[in-house]
Write a structure and sequence with these properties.
The chain has a domain of about 55 residues. It is about 35% helix and about 25% strand. It contains 9 helices and 10 strands. The strands form 2 sheets. The chain has a 6-stranded mixed sheet, with helices on both faces. A 4-stranded antiparallel sheet has the order 2-1-4-5. Keywords: ATP-binding, Nucleotide-binding, Transport. Belongs to the ABC transporter superfamily. One of its GO terms (molecular function) is ATP binding.
Length: about 260
Amino acid sequence: MSPLLGLDGLHLLRDGRRVLDGASLALHPGERLAILGANGSGKTTLLRTLVGLERPAAGRVLLFGADCRSEAQFRSARRRMGFLFQDSDDQLFCPTVLEDVAFGPLNLGLSDRQARATAMEALVALGLALLADRVTHRLSGGEKRLVCLAGLLAMRPEVLLLDEPTNGVDAENGRRLRAALAAFEGAMILVSHDEGLVADVATRAMELRDGRLAPRPILSPSAARKSEKNGPDRQRDERDDRHASEPEEDEPAHPAHQ
């Protein structure tokens, strides 16, 4: 079976530093691939490259059978992917929760009524119906994370790309997030320091080190819980995020909702 997404010998430089140095991967239907690695190793950059927000110096980005090089090719592929940013505030921009979740379906051509109905279905599925009329910037961190995920799920993507999805998420919202990911029927690439989430969700894992990807075992759920008790590194990948280049001028402001 052909992969849905792939990277082939990717090389990417930033400020003279080699962030990706021959990185390769393939994501097949139904797979849930966890990308692990130290802060600053390039995990966020890898996800941004998959959606065309970073352009490699060499190598290929393969999306749904197409060798994507132009913005038009990436724009077409993004309609089939949902990208959860590491910082929810970078992804929420409409005044209310319902409007924000409905934005993606509207961009896919649904009428206003259809888009709002689809958005409400996504909110109900995540237990967020009571937040529909809330102002997005007044939500808690965990609520923002789930609303962002609802916005992606409302578009019914084939693939989810998740950058530290449990960042700032409390226990209750964390249970809702895990349940939503477990129920998602498509494929996903998950970047996370949360070993418990990886153990619960991922079907395989790779580690990004020195710009390359290599297979890595997934901890058992019991070992993951022990690791969490010992204080896992849950900090944001600040170095990676802080040095990420901005989208090109013609890049849409909300690529994850296209």
